[in-house]
Amino acid sequence: MRPDAIYVEDGGLYTSAGVTAGIDLALRFIEEDHGHEIAMRVAQRLVVFLKRPGGQSQFSAHLAAQMAQEGRIAQVQSWILDNVSADLSVAALAQRVGMSPRNFSRLFLAEAGITPAAFVEYARVDAVRRALEETEMPLKSIAALCGFAGPDTLRRAFLRRVKTTPAEYREHFCRSKLPARV
Questions:
Q1: d(CA 19, CA 21)
Q2: C-beta of residue 154 within 8 angstroms of C-beta of residue 138
Q3: Taking the CB of residue 47, how many other CB atoms lie within 10 A of it?
Q4: Which of 30, 92, 100, 109 could cross-link with 87 by S-S, CB 3.0 to 4.6 Å?
Q5: What is the pLDDT of residue 83?
Q6: What is the pLDDT of residues 32-91, one digit of tens each?
Q7: CA angle, 100 as apex, 85 and 120 as ends, to 5°?
Q8: What is the predicted pLDDT for the residue at 90?
Q9: What percentage of the chain has pLDDT greater than the value 90?
């Protein structure tokens, strides 16, 4: 079993992990039925990967932030999403909500299902993805804007979470490079 599978097939029965994964599955069917070239043209028209690199994670920091029930954890998650370039260390976040770092980490994990550090990285990577899609800023500027120590740290986190490089992601999803609608 692959926990990060986008879609699975079992004895002729197919299922996908969501709407976007359904597009991935449809592209697989098109490729099987009509060949790689046609599937590639459809993917280009939709401005999506024909096959997403790796087992691309379906995690969204914004969705995870909606899962917290404890008021202080939900509050700090929302603050993290709005302040990705701030000091987001466990100590700083715990102080923000008036808790000890140890208790904060334990409660955060229980509420969000991930550690505070993982949540922060996902939030920052989400911010990087938006910046790559919506701007042509250099990676060094995006790293500073999104709270990364530098472009190399950003690249490693992006590859770990998105399973592709920032350059490849921008090449596929930068809005300024999208084809004009007719």
A1: 5
A2: no
A3: 13
A4: 92
A5: 96
A6: 899 877 877 777 677 666 555 544 455 566 555 556 666 899 899 989 999 999 999 999
A7: 25
A8: 97
A9: 45
How is residue 26 written in tokens? 């449809």
What pTM value is reported for the model? 0.67
Token pair for 61: 């920091």
148 secondary structure, DSSP code: -
List, in sequence order, every residue forming a beta bridge with 14; answer none if it has no partner.
Answer: 9
Residue 84 token pair: 């990705």
Q: How are beta strands 13-16 and 7-10 bridged, if at all?
A: antiparallel
Query: Exposed, middle or buried, 165 (CB in 10 Å: 0-12/13-18/19+)?
Result: middle
CA distances from 31 to 13, 41, 119, 131 (A): 17, 10, 36, 31
Q: Is 16 left (phi over 0), alpha (psi -120 to 50) or beta?
A: beta
Give me the DSSP letters along 73-125: HHHHHHHHHH-TTS---HHHHHHHTT--HHHHHHHHHHHHSS-HHHHHHHHHH
Across the range 140-145, mean pLDDT stands at: 97
Please enumerate in sequence order all residues whose Cβ is within 8 A of that of 71, keeping only pairs 6 or more positions apart, or say none. Answer: none
Strand partners, 9: 14
Q: Which residues are CB-contacts of 6 (< 8 A; sequence separation ≥ 6)?
A: 16, 17, 21, 24, 25, 52, 55, 56, 58
